[in-house]
Write a structure and sequence with these properties.
Helix 7 crosses helix 8 and helix 11 crosses helix 12. The strands form three sheets. A seven-stranded parallel beta sheet has the order 3-4-5-8-9-10-11, covered by helices on one side. A two-stranded antiparallel sheet has the order 1-2. It has a two-stranded antiparallel sheet with strand order 6-7. The chain starts with a helix and ends with a helix. It is α/β, with parallel strands linked by helices. The protein is about 45% helix and about 15% strand. Helix 5 links the parallel strand 3 and strand 4. The radius of gyration is 19 Å and the shape is globular.
């Protein structure tokens, strides 16, 4: 297939999938090169380039091995938005929220990220109600360390005693004996991060946590955390318009840590990027042009760009709609040509 014909794929063709062409080869070359450069055997670059026909779309971007033993597809799902508005309270349509979770698994997602602060507690409970007993190979990651006194408030609490209680609460709500990936949601400025991570290390030793991750960390903070406990992932804001975590991404790529980007689209709807400052004005036009050429949403292009950015990237787009979920996950099959990647920067 020529690059021209690849750029003319419709949104329906991307969702039903299976057509890769030369753009698929370009992703293979880029992913393989990044994997070799990082020296990271955890990344399956060949799987990322393999034809998608006959496989669920969530399996189309290859795999990443978290912590040396958790093999996950590089298209995850973020369960923040299955709660009420402002990530507060029960969802408007609980049945649809449950359908979203079940459909994500059907589409090949085997990595679901949540947090006790989402709802609060609502997201974790819905995951267990919808999916437990969990299918083999499904990894549930959650986070602790933020309190929600009210809808607009996200208050850090990194005290060891709170993190222990938060972890044990998540275990009960998720109906798990051990949490595969438990992440410190944010650093509490009133508590040394060594104290917070030290408690997670103790919970890991007790078998309540399999692996430890961090969220909203700088590269220097990540280095400090890794002196306390083995850290296998970082979850930071990262997208086309906001690349302030570029240094953290480089560390993750080099060291074989998963980089889990939140807010894959800086702002705006799934059809048009809005706001975002100077970088938005530079890149939004290119993003919308690429989306129009493929007949897909800007969200799908934003996710495809993330996947091409680094073999350590593990996107977790989230939604409360099955229709939007199917579009998001289909982005794993969207192949961007080298010229398109260059235009996006």
């Amino acid at each position: 297939m020529s690059l021209m014909s690849a750029s003319q794929l419709t949104r329906r063709q991307v969702i039903s999938g299976g057509v890769l062409g030369m753009a698929g080869v370009s992703r293979f070359v880029g992913t393989a090169h990044a994997a070799m450069a990082s020296g990271d055997p955890t990344v399956s670059a060949v799987a990322a380039a393999a034809p998608a026909a006959g496989r669920p779309p969530g399996q189309s971007a290859g795999t990443f091995t978290i912590g040396g033993d958790l093999i996950v597809n590089r298209m995850g799902f973020g369960a923040m938005r299955i709660t009420g508005s402002d990530i507060w309270g029960e969802p408007k349509d609980p049945a649809e929220a449950r359908r979203v979770l079940r459909r994500a698994v059907e589409l090949g997602v085997n990595f679901i990220d949540t947090a006790d602060a989402y709802g609060p507690e609502v997201s974790e409970r819905l995951i267990a109600e919808s999916l437990a007993p969990y299918p083999g190979g499904l990894v549930i990651a959650t986070k602790g360390g933020l309190l929600r006194p009210s809808a607009p408030q996200w208050v850090p609490d990194g005290r060891p005693e709170h993190l222990r209680a938060a972890c044990e609460g998540s275990l009960k709500r998720l109906k798990l004996a051990r949490i595969d990936l438990y992440q410190l949601h944010a650093i509490d400025p009133k508590v040394p991060l060594e104290d917070s991570l030290g408690e997670l290390a103790r919970l890991k030793q007790e078998g309540k946590i399999r692996h430890v991750g961090v969220s909203n960390f700088t590269a220097d903070e990540l280095a400090r955390a890794r002196r306390v406990v083995p850290v296998v992932s970082v979850q930071n804001r990262y997208n086309l318009a906001d690349r302030r975590s570029e240094e953290v991404l480089r560390v993750c790529t080099r060291e074989g840590l998963a980089f889990i980007p939140w807010a894959p689209l800086a702002s705006g709807s799934t059809s048009r990027l809005e706001g975002g400052g100077e970088r938005r004005s530079d890149k939004a036009g290119a993003l919308e042009k690429v989306a129009a050429a493929h007949g897909v949403s800007v969200m799908q292009v934003a996710i495809a760009w993330l996947l091409a950015r680094s073999p350590a990237m593990l996107p977790i787009p989230g939604t409360s709609s099955v229709a939007h979920l199917e579009e998001d996950i289909a982005a794993a099959r969207l192949q961007l040509a080298p010229a398109e990647l260059a235009a996006l920067g």
